[in-house]
Amino acid sequence: MAIQAKTRNEVAFARLRGDILSGRLIPGQKLAFAELCESYGVSVGVIREALSRLVEQGLVHSAPQQGFFVTTISGPDLVYLTQARCEIESLVLAHAIAEGNVEWESLVLASHHRLVNAPLVSPEDPERLSEEWVERHSDFHQTLLLGCENPRLRGIAGQLRDSAELYRRWSVPFDHEGDRDIAGEHALIVEAVLKRDTALATQRLVEHISKTTSLLLESGVVEGAEKR
Amino acid sequence: MAIQAKTRNEVAFARLRGDILSGRLIPGQKLAFAELCESYGVSVGVIREALSRLVEQGLVHSAPQQGFFVTTISGPDLVYLTQARCEIESLVLAHAIAEGNVEWESLVLASHHRLVNAPLVSPEDPERLSEEWVERHSDFHQTLLLGCENPRLRGIAGQLRDSAELYRRWSVPFDHEGDRDIAGEHALIVEAVLKRDTALATQRLVEHISKTTSLLLESGVVEGAEKR
DNA sequence: ATTTGGGACAATTTCGAAATTTAGTTGACC
DNA sequence: GGTCAACTAAATTTCGAAATTGTCCCAAAT
């Protein structure tokens, strides 16, 4: 008896979700059933169910009788998303600083250490962020908010962060203007969090989030991508 | 050729969602396929897809190989949900007051007027809120937040309000302590909103949301319902 | 030259049964 | 008398084809 605790639906959902968040499936791309069925080795019903769940998460868009597509990106949406993230992640981080215990502080330190010791750019393509760094970066920010006791607030913040992952593929690892230090920004956030300085921590988090969006908008790559 | 713009999936989803939000399907209840298929006149695949979407909305819970259930309610969850609603709806209302135009003010007045002219309790059962009032009450609160330009923030607030509908079935229309005036609370919120007094409006909104939760927790009906 | 209609093709949507798994019950054995 | 195993029954999960709908191309008419 093979150990198959997870249903085929769950694995298809997890894999589809991973393919979208990692950028292997790019915004605007059509998600055809025939192709996905063969690729994942399951029937259309399983794929439909997984896609429906992703629609509700905002990662996939469905047009009735027309199919499913990876949610498209756009400049205005990025602005809205960034505003929402700044305000809500600040709120949740404030809760975390107020409610988090020593165990949480340890987790923050640990996840930050893992992030620092990850290569920023991919070995094979120095123009793209490494998958390892993206994974640890996501973990680090999620851990920052883990001190907040309210699971509803944590869930909402995580949902917004997932949506933002759609844009990460287009982020440039190097700031060509030369005046950015991502690692330093993370370190400053950790410092303020451990000092329990809520105002300083939220301010630095907002600047960190805003900076990424500003550079992305200025690069003009979003407008180029949304034409698909 | 019959005009059927909506797929069977969409109608099943909408109807299931309505049945849950209106309390016809109560928290903890099992959602068996055979029953739903006959009731809605569709096959299992359609039901599965609709249920999967509702799972992602937090209205339905799924246990692999075991079926789907209406999300259960609990005291702790109600506390978390209320805290999240207070903080996020305040945030969105502040945006609405800052960004909303005259057209939005008109919508607020209109939806409030419709709410005032709806019967509070059901004609056949004076112990329960009327469906008409619940519908208009939901519309009123949604309209309040409609002035916020950011669709992401509006969506999050609406999502939290939907989750709170699971608890509305257990709300008592009459405050047996006798010191509550729901209609008055709504009027005060409208007044503060039209005066563009952000601090006062958000304060009154928070008190309005908190009051409902307090009465529900004090009544002890939630602990009785979650035992199912 | 543009538009309108028909028709073949491809894709999504829906169905109903087969395959798996879980829950409940009966029986045998310690 | 209690525990465990196997069997039965009911439910979920999965599949693959049928039905429906949208898309595209081409021909005919304005």
From TrEMBL, chains A, B:
Pfam families xref list: FCD, GntR
PANTHER family reported in the protein's UniProt record: HTH-TYPE TRANSCRIPTIONAL REPRESSOR GLAR, TRANSCRIPTIONAL REGULATOR, GNTR FAMILY
Domain HTH gntR-type: 6-73
InterPro entries: GntR_C, TF_FadR/GntR_C, Tscrpt_reg_HTH_GntR, WH-like_DNA-bd_sf, WH_DNA-bd_sf
Organism the protein comes from: Subtercola boreus
One GO MF term: DNA-binding transcription factor activity
Protein name as catalogued: HTH gntR-type domain-containing protein
Gene3D superfamilies registered for this protein in UniProt: GntR ligand-binding domain-like, Winged helix-like DNA-binding domain superfamily/Winged helix DNA-binding domain
Keyword Iron-sulfur: no
Keyword set, alphabetical order: DNA-binding, Transcription, Transcription regulation
